[in-house]
Each structure stands twice: as C-alpha cells, then as structure tokens.
Amino acid sequence: MKTISRLIFLVCFINSITIFAQNNYPQNYFRNPLNIPINLAANFGAVRSNHFHMGLDIRTNSQENLPVVAAADGYISRIKVERYGFGNAVYITHPNGYTTVYAHLNKYFDKLDEFVKDKQYKDEKWEQDITFSANQFPVTKGQLIAFSGNTGGSAGPHLHFEIRDTKTEMCLNPLLFGFNIPDTIAPIISELYWYDRRFSTYEPGANGVAVKKTGNNYTANVVQVSSPTISFAIKAVDKANLGFNLGIYDAELLMDGKSVYRFKIDKVSYDDTRYSNGCIDYAKFVQDKMSIQHLSTLPGMRLENYSSGSNGMINLKDEEIHNIEIVLKDVNGNTSRLTTKVQLTKSLDKVSSNDKTVTPNQAKTIKTENAEINLSKNAVYDAVNFNMYEKNGGEAISNAIVLNSPLIPIHDNYTLKIKTNRKLTSEEKEKVVMQLDYGSDVSAVKGKWNGDWVEGDFNRLGTAKLLLVTSLPSVSPSWKDEALLSGNFLRLKGITKIGDIISFRAELDGKWLRFARVKDDFVYGFDEKCPKGSGLHTLKVTTINTAGNTNTQTFTFRR
C-alpha cells in the first residue's frame, strides 16, 4: 500500500513539474505599469496588419501624460525615438531574466529626458536608439519612468506594454504573468469556414457556415463538402469584462473526439511575427477587416511555438457523418465550444496548376516583356496561380505591372525589375522611383539601375510602375512670416507628391533645432533654444524626398 501511495505521489509530482515547466513564469512579480486598473484595448497575439500584436495595449481613458512606472526593479537598458513603430519607448532589464517594454510615450522622466535631448542635439538627429549600462538609470518597482502618449504607430492614446525574454528577445504573453484583469467572458464565435484543400486556400477560398449560440456553446448544421480533403477556420473574438475585441489565445479542432490541430499563442519573436499572414484568411482581413483564423497549418507557415499536433488537414475517406468540435479558451480558462458534423458528398475534380504557379518552399522567377519578379522560397504561405501582366502606365515612364493581387500576402521582400519605355538622360535617371499601389495605400522606393532596368524591393503585391519625379518636397508653416507666436510649439506640415520626405533638417538662427516627426508633420516644442522675447528668428528647413530632390525654405517668426 505504501508503495502504491509513493507511486501515486511520484506521478503527481512529475505531472506538477511538467505543468510548471510549460508555464514557468513568475506570478505577480510584475506590477501594473499604470496607476489605474488595467483595461485592455488589445491583447498579445491579436492579428494586426502584417504582424501579431506583441504585447498588451492598456487603455489610458483617452488621456495622455498619465504616469508610467517600472513594472519591477531593474535598470533602463534602452530607449527608442522613432516616427512610426513604438514612437518613444523605454526598455527595462530585470534581474530575473526578463525585459519589459513601454511604448508610445510622450516623454521620459526628467533625468532621462534631458539625457536623450542632449544626445539628440549632439548628434543633430531626432531619431535615436540608445543602450545603457546597468548603473546609468537603475529603477525600482513603481518608480516613475515616463508619461503615456500617442506617439509612433499609435491610433489613439494608450500604453503598449511587453514582456520579453532578455536573452532571446522572444516576446512572451504578459497575461501569463498573473496580472489582475477581471475576465469571466468566454470567446465569442460568429462564423465557421471550410476550405477545399485540394486547392490553395486562396482559390477558390472560404465557404461560410452559419453558427447558432446557446450560452457558451455553439452549433452548426451538417457541413456538406465536395472535397475529401478540407480544413476549417473560425471567426471569433475574445472579450475581457470591460469591453474591447481581443485576439484568440487557444483554439483546438477535434474530429470524432481526436485532436486534429491546436494553436496557443504564448510567445512570438519579432523575426516571425509576419507569419500572422499565414495564420489567417488574408483576403478577408484586407477586404473586410475580418480576422478569420485557420485551424490548420498552411504549407509555407513556419511559425515556431504556435501550433502543435497534426496540421489540421481533414481527410474524409468515406461518406459517413463525422463529428467536429472546436474548443476556444482564453488565458483565464473561459471556454467556448462549437459542435457540428461534416459529410463528404460528391467529389469534384481537382484543377491542375500552371507554369506560373508559385508554391511554398520554392523560389520562382516570373517574367513579362518589360518586367521580372524574383520571389524567394519563403515568399508564399500557400500555392498562388500568379497572374502578372502589363498595361498602360499613363504618365509613368514604364508600363504598369500588375502583380497578381493585393489580396495575396508575401512573407519577405521580393525584387521587381521594370524596363523604362523611353531613353533617359543621366540626370533623369537619378530622379526615378518605383511606386507600388496595393489598394489601401502606395509606397515608393528609389530606383536602382541595372543596365536598362530599374530594380525595387517590396513585400506586398499590387500594381507597380516607374515615375520620373521632378517635384520638390516642402513644408508648410502654421504661421505667417514675422508673426509673433504665443503657443508652445511650431508645426510644419510635410508635403511631397510622390514617395516620402526621407530627410529633414531645421536650423534656428544657424543652429540645429530638434523637431519631432509626428506622422507627416514636424513639431518643435519651445525650450531654452528659443526663449521668449529673443527678437526675430530665422528658421531654415531643408527637406529631401524619395527621389533625392532637395528643397531649402526659410521662415521667420518672433516669440
């Protein structure tokens, strides 16, 4: 009897070690980085444009300049100042092997803010990425480090908060660290989809199945399919008690009681975050802003630590009715279940691919008369019947090159070569840009010449063409020359017809002045560099656009 008891104890002990090892994160070590209750606008793993959300977006009650405090003891190891991305950010390294990140800040605490400002003036450069030693800026848990804001790639005031493994820089799900965020609401399922996997998931695409809700349980009518090989996807959101739609943390697909596929989003690296495009129905996401997550692994999706078990492909070898169950869970264990059945009906013939089919894990070059695209072996997540053709480019100096469709994701950069439709002088060649229109926006890069061809790199599909850009960039002031200014800042609106302003330099009375880049504008907050009552000031601004065209403008004002 004692032997049996010892064996039971040993088994339980081993199981407890296994569970602990799978989620060996310190509980309640990190505190809330704000002094108000955590209310999430987005969670870790939520699907965004071309990336997973890599932390928590904590609401600041639509306000800016709330105190942001250190989540635990440590030292400030890095800060960033950038136009997009994190905007102003602080990184704190902690002695337990983790680093916390605080982003979209308006301002650092006084001592750090002065350090950064001094370096910006010394470098004559606003954007910064500075690392620090452990003894420069030590912090204690709860110490003020910054003030919240809306800088960088932020659509509204909030604090972006991350926890990373210091050694690997892997981003970890902060909700696994024991933060007190009330959540008693199970994930909400709104629709089920199935795909004929004899084809690519891109063609013919998703087949929708309506679902019915009863409590946290969902049902759907028998799914009649015309293919022996299918996969499923789910449209669903998670909710915390205070409201916003959040991403799904844990999803499992079972057929006849056997697990077919499971994903759980505990950690993701920035090197892999673009694989989010291979986890969703990308066309639905781009067209309809719908996040439909595949319950299968696409052939070119190689995201580590995300999915486990089988690849989610369902092979129906008979015309019997099979049971399907989908189980969704949040970090707190709140659970929703969808049950349905699937049955194979008459199977349709598979359509063969063509010589322009791009497949995962195989590089491909596709050519037209005046263009060539070179796709790497990592370019696509699923097979693409790549339709590339030329059409009239209008005022462009090349034909417009249609690269399949913006509804197909590309994982990494490809090189596109386009031939001009006329001879250019050496001076004109220096002003050529390649522009890509991908529907929701356009981007442009400086053309790289290779003989008679111009090369450019992009990571989206759309319609590309070559443009000869002779227009100058400029800035437009919010005041008239020699005006007496009473506000707290200067604002200049950046203007360029094609591409972007890639370089901006401002000098006040002959000395470099620190302007911040806020989206397309340039903003200077008055400081000791421009005191009140100091007479007439001359502001000289030099801008350069993507094509390399330079413009210098001079403005005057009094303060």
From TrEMBL:
Transmembrane segments: none annotated. Keywords: Signal. SUPFAM superfamilies: Duplicated hybrid motif. One of its GO terms (molecular function) is metalloendopeptidase activity. Residues 1-21 form the signal peptide. Residues 52-120, 138-168 form the M23ase beta-sheet core domain. This is Peptidase family M23.
